[in-house]
Amino acid sequence: MKKIIKKSYKILALILLSTMACTDLSERPYNVLVEEDLGSSPEVLAALTAPVYTRLTDLLYGWHGYFDLVEECSDAIVTPARPNGWIDGGVYRNMHMHTWNAFQSHPSGLWNRAYGSLNILNNALLNYQTIEGENIPVLVSELRALRAFYYYLLVDAFGNVPIVTEENLLTPDELPSQSSRREVFDFIEAELLDIMDIIPEEKVYGKMNKWAAKMILAKIYLNAEVYIGEAKYQQAIAQVDDIINSGLYILEPNYHTNFVTNNQSSREQIFSVIFDETRAGWFHYHWKTLHPASAATYNLGTAPWGGSAAIPQFIDTYEEGDSRFDIWIRGPQFSLSGQPIFNSMDPSLREVQLDYQNTMGSVDATREYEGYRVGKYEIEIGSVGPLSNDVPFFRYADALMIKAESLLRTGNADAAAQIVTEVRMRSFENPDDAVVTGAELMQGSRYQYGNYESGSIVSLEGGDDVQYGRFLDELGYEFAAEFHRRQDLIRFGVFTSKSWLTHRPNGNHRTIFPIPQPAIDANPNLNQNPGYN
């Protein structure tokens, strides 16, 4: 069992009372805990910072969490209607069909979890202003980097959001105003550049450091054309070059090392969210994807729910010999002792061995065996609850691929191909099969876009017209089920222009989500994003 950051619940309770703000600013604000209240021991300082990290587990994999938000709307993963349910009022269908509205639970989940964490984070920063110590500026820089991370998620998902800092807490009667996407972009950039010479360089597992901060910068620069209409690829290269030249990170020789149980030994992970089956337990994706009968394969203490799976068109793009394909659970299924296990929900299939097949009816109707299941993270044998795999949000491979894409988009396809080949090498037994050329990266995508019904494409659109589509394919193989796909599809112009499974394009405004209606109702300073009124 790994150690995770200890929390002082007494201190946390005091922090959470911060919403009870005083209106006489000449008096001491009682939502600020000064040094004589707390002291400045490492335990106290950890109690101020720990919640903003531990809450990331719920943000990423809580019910209708960030994973579902950015993967369910993509061309790779879907939660279709199943014989055992998963209709759920149409929320998953909405994500697949891009028909969500301002009441959709998935965007609301990100909004509420992010701003709830920012409230705690900003209170910690406000409290740090009252504590002296040589390590305080370092802790402040770490929290500011984490705050920039939260705003990176928000600006990517919603575009125009309020910027709330510790200064807002001193004017509690003023509801925050809404900032433009450019203003949020500029805030993230300025925050990270300002703390870059203060934040630690050394690796502290599960916490922000200089290199994680540089990854956030590289990400907003990579997506700057989407966010603010300006290309910043050279700036992205500069940030990841610093990470590459640090010598602190490597491509793990075995790709799957990044996703095993208690995977903190991986030298590829730049920023990871720590999960633990008993103390930080939100990682239950194996339940969401596996058929109930698959409990026998892993000796699970409870039956999975049998929901999400890979979209067949995405699976069909993989090259033969690519070991990254092994993240998908497929084919006939057996118990831990080697006995066949059987379908259970459809009376006509109860005597038929469970066999995950790469086919699917539609988002509205599937058989229980349809669709390969997500098995990227090792499922621990005998697990009785959530998994203890830590989730890498930024990996060294990501830094390399940011550089490769930036080179490709600035006319250096051959240099980009060298990097892509380096990333591919560990995933092919024959090194020659891993080599890709600049000319190939300039080609379209292998993905056969178009509407798909019951095993075949009924209106072929193809992927030949996707600029740099071959590179988009590579991102899909390397980062499948890693929070990437929505953002990548938007950057490559596919998200609102192509069809897959039952999805059809439904408006360019879908590149950002609506501001949740309850947030607008609570704050008259917020305006709904275009297209959702």
TrEMBL record:
Annotated InterPro entries: SusD-like_N (IPR033985), SusD_RagB_dom (IPR012944)
Keyword Signal (UniProt): yes
UniProt name for this protein: RagB/SusD family nutrient uptake outer membrane protein
Domain RagB/SusD: 313-532
Domain SusD-like N-terminal: 93-222
UniProt key word Amino-acid biosynthesis: no
Domain of life: Bacteria
GO CC annotation terms, alphabetical: cell outer membrane
Compartments it resides in: Cell outer membrane
Signal peptide: 1-23
UniProt main location, coarse: membrane
Pfam families per record: SusD-like_3 (PF14322), SusD_RagB (PF07980)
UniProt entry keywords in alphabetical sequence: Cell outer membrane, Membrane, Signal
